[in-house]
Give the backbone structure.
Amino acid sequence: MKNSILLFLLPLFLTCKGEGQPTAGAPAAPSEVSASALSPTEALLVWKDNADGEEGYYVFANAVQPFATLPAGSTQFHFTDLEPEKTYTFGVQAFANNGALSLKVTAEPVTTPAPEPEPEPDPNPVEPVSFQWMEVEGLDLPATVNVFKTESTLNGRPLQAWYAVADCTGDIKLRVLFPGKGNKKTIDKQAEEDGKCLVLVNGGIFGTWNNGLAVCDGEQTPWARVEDDNWDVDRQYWGPDKKLHTISRGLAGVDQNGVPGVYWSYTPSHGTVYVYDQPIPTVAGGPVQQGGTDTFPCPRADWTPYNAITCGPVLLQGGKCPINKKKTSAGYWETNYELWADDIYGVEVLADRTAVGYLPDGRVILLIVDGRISTSQGATTLEMAAIMKGLGCEGALNLDGGGSTGMWAKGGGHLNDLTAEANRPVLTTIGFFEK
């Protein structure tokens, strides 16, 4: 019996202890006293009310004098206005109407946490742009895939654009198609050859190879290597300063569970893709950077591309736009980390454009903007960032544009205008598919 009582009381004495002596006629002391920090300035003290006929309770915080007085029957108190990163000993004591005091029981000391650091200011603030979007009717799509169109103005210019949105964690899959080295096909042809395609847009910039990498159902496309000059397109690029630079490439897609992401990528070897929340800080006119590692340019992100495409520039990462119009003293774009030509970097160039991004709830967005026609003069990459931000995107990546820009939807065919340029064959595409 003694051992049983001792074992029952042991947890109590590990979490709380009594102070002082009860006075004559005192109510029973509280028990099972414990405290926990709720925030840098808040804590919660709880206890078991053992008293019968008490007048109330005093609670304490690192002091002899009570912090507050509570009514009879109380079993907890929420402390506020505490100091961050400070250790507190919280206690509680019952008192009677004649002034008699129970034993004061204290909890194990608790340290309030440090405040959350202030978010870093957006170095390249982009204001979101919103339009009146109307759902495109007559398409043969499931209810979980929607396509919208706007005919509006953007910074005083006529604009015509479409976007498709879908949750790719359920019955819908985001896939990247790669017909093979040099085997370019129109968006429509690639869509129609796959019986499960619902919506498809153009993918990455290309020549004979995709200008970067594509991951299709977990398989990286064949290595894009320029044999004559002995350099790898996945991780190197000639800058306007005539130097072969190490680069990371913007990448967007989903992992095997359909969770979307927008990152910068580096491929140390074929089939291995590192992804980061920051780019390798390559700038034309600057030094040649080292390749990506587990910790450079920042710790690798815990995300593995399963269907993904590289292109650029990255338009949004963590809700912020990483590009701007500033130039270095040598006259090169200071945030053109992938060394794109001016029309692709595009902060001052209007063009037909395509982008892929994702919303905070995990849905994926595919956006196209018509350009070079009277009803739509196109957009800059900064304007594309603003449109994607207006749609609510956390991350977004610019894809190939110009004559490559296009959207195909089941039941509607090719949606955008082809006046400026015929339906150009492309190397890679990205879109929504039935599983």
